[in-house]
């Protein structure tokens, strides 16, 4: 039922996109609203009633380790068998391991595993650690880029609205400070807009999406690493190292199986490297994650 709800709302977004019902700037405006307001509100709303120990738990270790391992393995594959340069391989590494935790992860977390706060470790790890360090290395490799990028990458996590909302929410949760009703109620109203709007935006983005062109093999391989290998790694680690079972195991595997984030495409465009790989991996992994997540839910749900 959770998947059916998600897919039906995505389909409505797809129809809106195909008909261009919201105009040329409609999708971007909705996406900005989701990113800047609704999703941070949802994270804050969920975190203030979540035990902080549930966030920084074994699940956080599984998320970090599975992403780093899957990404590093794809980096080695790019450098050795595929004979790609270092810059392209770094983008490929992100395409194979950087999850769409915000736009798609939160709606799936709400409807499939019934826990919006489950994606917080993914967002914090990727925005505050994974992307800054990887892109700093990429900047060093591509010396023609701006010299102040390192400073910008350090500042980026501190200006990301999702990270800010997560930090403030965890502050209230850690100190067990009650949130005034004057704040909690409007935040709750805004939070309610996050999931449906994010799914509509995602559906609109699928309308007229570019098909595989140059570098199709790399994109398909990166997608397989992201939605197949990474959840396998996460599942094995969660079960055999941390002894997870039931809902905890399902959560770890579902989060690992999320598709490649659109952020990777933005990074590739910024450095003008592996642009086709980043764009196509986002599309292919998004489509491929649907049957994968259904299978995961059937096996572990």
TrEMBL record:
It is found in: Membrane. InterPro entries: Mem_transp_PIN-like. The chain crosses the membrane at residues 55-78, 90-113, 119-141, 153-175, 187-207, 219-242, 248-269, 281-300. Pfam families: Mem_trans. One of its GO terms (biological process) is transmembrane transport. It is a multi-pass membrane protein. GO terms for cellular component: membrane. Keywords: Cell membrane, Membrane, Transmembrane, Transmembrane helix, Transport. This is Putative transporter YfdV.
